[in-house]
Design brief:
CATH topology of the largest domain: Na+/H+ antiporter like fold
Mean pLDDT: 79
Low-confidence stretches: 407-416, 683-701
CATH class of the largest domain: Mainly Alpha
Helix content: 55-70%
CATH architecture of the largest domain: Up-down Bundle
Oligomer: single chain
Number of strands: 10
Length: 715
Amino acid sequence: MKELLEFIDLDIHFPITDPTWIFFLVLVIILFAPIILERLRIPHIIGMILAGVVIGEHGFNILARDSSFELFGKVGLYYIMFLAGLEMNMEDFKSIRVKATVLGLLAFIIPLGIGFWTNMHILGYAVVTSVLLASMYASHTLIAYPIVIRYGINRQRAVSIAVGGTAVTDTLTLLVLAVISGLYKGETSEYFWVWLVLKFLVLSIIIMYTFPRIARWFFRRYSDNVVQYIFVMAMVFLGGGLMELIGMEGILGAFLVGLLLNRLIPHVSPLMNHLEFVGNALFIPYFLIGVGMLINLNVLFGHIDSLKVAAVMIVVALLGKWIASWLTQKIYKMRAVERELMFGLSNAQAAATLAAVLVGYSIILPSGERLLNEDVLNGTILLILVTCIVSSFITEHAAKRIAMSDDVGVSEEKEQEKERFLVPVANPETLEGLMSLALVLRDEKINDNLVALSVINDNNDSVKQEMRSKRNLERAAQIAASTNVQLKTVSRFDLNITTGILHTAKEYEATGIIIGLHYKASIVDSFFGNLTENLLKNTYLQVMVVRFLMPVNTLRRIIVAVPPKAEFEHGFTKWITYMCRMSSQLGCRVQFYASSRTLGYIRGFIQKKFKDTRAIYSELEDWDDLLLLTGQVTYDHLLVIVSARRGSISYDSSFERLPMQVSKYFNNNSIMLLYPEQKGDPNESLSFSDPRGWAETQYYDKVGNWIYKWFRKNS
């Protein structure tokens, strides 16, 4: 090979040190490794590490581990911990916080205890080394979580407990890591521990109080995805840097920032997609390859001690997690298959384990030895490989059994019609808000449930309108594509925009329409505008008329005002489902205001189908008291007013005053006027003898209700 290179006059020497070629070869590995690994059924995280082993100085010595691996390695490590915190479902944790805390504590204490004893007496390590190594056994990563999503059981009790327990376990593990690393970074004194804990608590409070508020303010002012991405990454490294300033490990700060920002970054959003894309495409693989370049397989397989360390690590990690899952099952009298599922989800070692071993490997003791030696570093790779495989296998087996045995909601889901939202995007100023709302409301299990529409008036100015329409649809497609969501774009010519929307809704079998609130150009304009009014008159599909004064992801609460008898409408459960989805995606509370009877139906449905939703139920017996909500709705809340069409069961004459009330008292609030789906055809309720349907009967009902209330008051 060397002679060939000399013959063709190429100045190439191994290991390669030129940054250009190093970066190129790393990108080639990142490109082709997943293809090969998929065929071999090797977890990607292990494959990237093995690729680093092959090209590193302990393998074929192809690449030199230069400063780029140090830089990208640190970025990748922070990225892993940030995404781990970002993907934690804190709402699931709150709903089952006691059970999750019990599992998290058991999954931390038991492996820590067993690991400390085995490290001291079997492996012969020192106290500090034994504690740090034992904390690695306790940590885990939700590698197998996509499996439960694929089987549709992610709302199962056992899954929620495992996810919540992960937050507890990994937080405690990182605290142990931070304390030990801080011990070797600063000067030890009699007040070292007190001062370290005090600094950590003060900084954590400052971060928890300021970071979410700063982020919410920034997201409201700047909607550009690139700017938001840079801001988030700056926050991550600021959190990590502040932790390092006080002597703690920076990855704890990155993990904390992820936990704090996950409510502001919906799972289905362009920003979340960008964060995952950049991390998974570049920084995390670069970091894993760099880890592999540190591995010396000769040490692992050439010394009996290395194999002994790896075997002890694997046995203790698996045994500790199984005991924790078994005890949780017995304490809360859960099924055996639920124990299996909790064990499968909680035994995979990855992110926190890698973080701990690298930090321990980088700490040099006064004796010149490393806190965690090469035996531990190499054994960690086998630990990650075995636990990831075991986790995937057990989770798959348990998830399949639960999916086959549990028939809750199966029949109802089959009967449910396929949902599809139609989003007219005529106004570029409201386009982003409408698309963001549609992405939050849609069912993630359905691929083709979004249609963006632009209706062009067939007149002399149609050429300009066509160009404008094209730009709007392209922007809508970009927003959807940035979240990996399939969007159907439709452009059509029509003399009447309303009929264009209605015809498109029929052609594409839309089940709901999301439209922006009309902008009043003059004082004589109606509140809704002719388009929305005509739309409501000519369709019984669910229509949501919205106006956002801030980005959807910065909303802190959803307040829903529900009229009496709303439970008798055909689309009652459908709009409740959308509110629960929205609450889950945005990580905010949803508060329902309705009569006691209607609240009972709402509460019953949510407890049956969406028990993890953070819902508050407040009585609003008289719909005329709607203005009382002015004191409850703030700038960062979304007010949802469930209205009704004329002739419907829940229609009330007071709805005629809604436009005036909204424009006068809720003008500074984000608002949604929701018209639930009804049965039949709107034309059926209209005739020459009664052109307004059943509207007049509502006034008689009003008088009757007033007489009844007066009689009850004076009796």
